[in-house]
Amino acid sequence: MDKTETREMLTNDISIREDDDGNRTLSGYAVKWEKRSHVLGLYYKFREQFKKGAFLESLNDDDQRFLWSHDKSKVLGRVKNNTLRLKEDDIGLRFELDLPSTSLGNDTYESIKRGDVDGVSFAFRDADDDIYEPEDDLPLRTIKKAKLTEISAVAFPAYPDSEVSARGFDPMKQYDDELKEYREEQAAKIKTLINLGGMK
């Protein structure tokens, strides 16, 4: 099962600059630390936040791409080629992307410059998380560590808080399934012990 998770966020922090030689660079934040998300979850509603350092190991070990709308055939930049630069700072996960001189690069530049595209999305997997369940609010999932796979420019849909803004693998369903399985195992063990006690 593919456990890749995708998050989309509206941001006014994408900046775009062009130098005298016509080189164009996008920059901004894909993630901001400990900023609670909108309501997420297909199966079980929750909110989510990322701890500082969540992607540090992945940034050192992996070769992330910057894509157009999560389309793997539309690559705008890549860490290995230094056309995409990723860095964690005190605010969040910051990116710098050198746009290619291609039709895709030109379209991306114009769409962001005009404001038609003003969203950033990122995909991650293998999350190490904590889940806090307050009595008076939705569960809060805190991602402590994860493998970052890609960042995308997206035409962000205006999701209200009551709708789903997470796609792919649903971590809370897995959490709920594992909790149910654990409780069933414990109940079976207790039943076995009771039966053994009754046989004496």
TrEMBL record:
One of its GO terms (molecular function) is peptidase activity. GO terms for biological process: proteolysis. Keywords: Hydrolase, Protease, Viral release from host cell. Transmembrane segments: none annotated. The keyword Hydrolase applies. Residues 14-174 form the Prohead serine protease domain. InterPro entries: Peptidase_S78_dom (IPR054613), Prohead_protease (IPR006433). This is Head maturation protease of prophage CP-933C. It comes from Oceanobacillus indicireducens.
